[in-house]
Design goal:
Elements (H helix, E strand, L loop, with lengths): L5 E7 L3 E10 L2 E11 L3 E2 L2 E2 L2 H19 L5 E6 L5 E10 L9 H13 L6 E13 L2 E4 L9 E12 H13 L3 E7 H9 L2 H6 L1 E6 L4 E7 L2 E8 L3 H12 L3 H11 L12 E4 L8 E4 H25 L9 E4 L8 H9 L3 E4 L12 H11 L3 H7 L33 E2 L2 E4 L26
Parallel strand pairs: 1-6, 6-11, 12-17, 17-18
Antiparallel strand pairs: 1-2, 2-3, 4-5, 7-10, 8-9, 8-10, 12-13, 13-14, 15-16, 18-20, 19-20
Helix pairs in contact: 1-3, 4-10, 6-7, 6-8, 8-9
Function: Cell division protein that is involved in the assembly of the Z ring. May serve as a membrane anchor for the Z ring.
Pfam family, one: SHS2_FTSA
Main location: membrane
Length: about 450
C-alpha cells in the first residue's frame, strides 16, 4: 500500500473513540479498518485528562491497525464545537511583478494577511475558507494560480477555536504516538459528507447528538455558517433512566439501547422488560411506555434548547430541513420527535459503508472524506496554520473554472436513498443541480449573508 493513499479519521467522543482507516484508489475511498474503544479522559466532548485520553486513543488506533493491517502514523482529528467562532475575513497583497504568474507562495501570503488581523491571543485558527479571490477588478475567482495582475485579494471566513481545547487535543493525540494531518471542526466535515450538494447550497440544519453533548450546525451556500453546542447528550438520558428506575448506569445504558424509544406516543404500555433494581434480589418489570417517557423528557430539553438557539440565529425553516446524526440518532422514533419539535422535515443519516451502518460512525467517516476531498488551493492555505499539511507541487496545480449556474425542476424525494433513513411530514423536493444563488429570501443574521 502507498502510505500517501491512507487516511485515518479520529473521532474523540465522550463515550467512545473511533478511528476509520481508509485507502484511496483512483479517486475511490474504501474503508479498510475500524477501531472503536470506550473513551476516557473526555467530558462533554472536551479532553479533561490528557493521559487517560491518550491511552484510550492508543487502544483505538491499535485496534484499527490490527483490522486494517496498516501502521498508523498520522490522523485527521475532529474538533468539538465548543466556543468555535466563524468570522468574515479578507486580505490583500500587491503583486510586485505583474508579469509573473500567481503561485502557491502568493496564495499563502494573502491567506496570512487575511487571518493575521485582529486574531485574539487566546484563539487559534482551525480553518480559512476562501469564498472567492479577486485579481485587480476581477472577482469570483476560485483558483488564481497561473493568472497575472497587480493586486490579489482573498475574501472568506476564518474558523477559530480556544487554544486550550485545541492544545489538549494535540497533546493527547501526539502522546498517543501519531501526528496530526489536520484538525477539522466535526460539523464542517459532516456537512460535506452527509448533505447533498443542493442541501448544502439551499441550507440545512445538522444536529449531531452525541453521548456527551449535542451540536447544532447550519450549512448554507456550501459553507458552515453557524454552530452551537448543548452540553447534554446520550449520557444524560442514561443517568435519568438509572435514577428513575433505580438501576446501575451499566444496566441503564443497556436498557436504553435495547428497549428505548424517543417518542412516548409510539410506545406500548403492554410491552414489558425486566430491570435489575439496586437492593432487590429479583428483577422488576418495567413497561416500554414509562421508559419512553423518561427518554422523551430529556430529549425535549435538549432539542428545545437547540431550537431556541437556532431560532435566535434565524436559522429555522430552511429548505433542507434537519439531518440527525451521532449515536443518539439511532434511537427509534427520534426523527418523529424532532419533526414535532422543530416543525420541519427530519431525517437520520446512516453511513452506507459495510460495518459502519450506524449514525455514531458518521464523524469518523466524514473526516476521511473531508481530507480526501480538499482542493489544491485548500491544501495550500492550510500550510499557513498547519505545518503538517502537505503542499501540492507546482506541477499539480490546475486552474479551477467556476461552475456554470444550472437549474432543473425538483425531483420528488424518496423514502430511502443512499444510506439515508428518512422521516418527513411532507415530501421534500430535491435539487438535482447545484445553484450558486437560489433566490430564497431568508432572514439570516450577518454571518449567513
Amino acid at each position: 500500500m502507498n502510505e500517501s493513499d491512507i487516511y485515518v479519521g479520529l473521532d474523540i467522543g465522550t463515550t467512545s473513540i473511533k478511528a476509520i482507516v481508509a485507502q484511496t484508489i483512483d479517486g475511490q475511498t474504501n474503508v479498510i479498518g475500524v477501531g472503536n474503544e470506550p473513551s476516557a479522559g473526555v467530558s462533554r466532548g472536551i479532553i479533561v485528562d490528557i493521559e487517560k485520553a491518550a491511552q484510550a486513543i492508543r487502544k483505538t488506533l491499535d485496534q484499527a491497525e490490527t483490522k486494517s493491517g496498516v501502521e498508523i502514523s498520522s490522523v485527521v482529528v475532529g474538533l468539538p464545537a465548543d466556543l468555535i467562532s466563524i468570522d468574515r475575513c479578507s486580505g490583500m497583497i500587491s503583486l510586485q511583478d505583474q508579469a509573473n504568474e500567481i503561485d502557491n507562495q502568493d496564495i499563502m501570503e494573502v491567506a496570512r494577511t487575511a487571518i493575521s488581523s485582529n486574531l485574539p491571543q487566546e484563539r487559534e485558527v482551525v480553518n480559512l475558507i476562501p469564498e472567492e479571490f479577486k485579481i485587480d477588478d476581477f472577482d469570483g475567482i476560485a483558483d488564481p494560480r497561473g493568472m497575472v495582475g497587480s493586486r490579489l485579494e482573498l475574501v472568506g471566513r476564518v474558523i477559530t477555536g480556544p487554544k486550550t481545547i485545541i492544545h489538549n487535543v494535540r497533546k493527547a493525540v501526539t502522546q498517543a504516538g501519531v501526528t496530526i494531518d489536520q484538525l477539522v471542526v466535526g460539523a464542517e466535515a459532516e456537512g460535506k459528507t452527509i448533505l447533498s450538494d443542493s442541501e448544502q447550497d439551499f441550507g440545512t440544519i445538522l444536529l449531531d447528538l452525541g453521548g456527551g453533548q449535542s451540536t447544532a450546525a447550519v450549512i448554507h451556500d456550501n459553507e458552515l455558517k453557524y454552530i452551537d453546542v448543548d452540553h447534554e447528550g446520550g449520557q444524560y438520558i442514561t443517568k435519568d433512566i438509572s435514577s428513575v428506575l433505580n438501576t446501575s448506569l451499566k444496566d441503564a445504558e443497556s436498557i436504553k439501547r435495547e428497549y428505548g424509544i424517543a417518542d412516548a406516543q409510539a410506545a406500548v404500555a403492554d410491552n414489558e422488560f425486566p430491570v435489575e433494581v439496586v437492593g432487590q434480589s429479583q428483577p422488576q418489570k418495567v413497561n416500554e411506555k414509562l421508559l419512553a417517557e423518561i427518554i422523551e423528557a430529556r430529549l425535549d430539553q435538549i432539542l428545545g434548547r437547540l431550537k431556541d438557539k437556532l431560532t435566535a440565529a434565524n436559522a429555522l425553516g430552511m429548505p433542507g430541513g434537519i439531518v440527525l446524526t451521532g449515536g443518539v440518532a439511532s434511537m427509534p422514533k427520534l426523527a418523529e420527535l424532532a419533526a414535532n419539535t422543530f416543525g420541519m422535515n427530519v431525517r437520520v443519516y446512516i453511513p452506507d459503508k459495510m460495518g459502519l451502518r450506524h449514525p455514531s460512525f458518521a464523524l469518523g467517516l466524514a473526516l476521511v472524506n473531508y481530507a480526501t476531498g480538499l482542493s489544491d488551493v485548500d491544501q495550500v492555505i492550510r500550510t499557513v496554520f498547519s505545518v503538517d499539511a502537505p503542499l501540492p507541487s507546482q506541477a499539480d496545480q490546475a486552474t479551477e473554472q467556476p461552475a456554470t449556474d444550472q437549474y432543473q425542476a425538483p425531483a420528488p424525494a424518496e423514502e430511502e436513498e443512499g444510506g439515508l433513513s428518512l422521516f418527513s411530514r411532507r415530501k421534500q423536493p430535491k435539487e438535482p443541480k447545484q445553484r450558486k444563488k437560489n433566490g430564497f429570501n431568508f432572514s439570516f443574521k450577518n454571518f449567513f449573508e
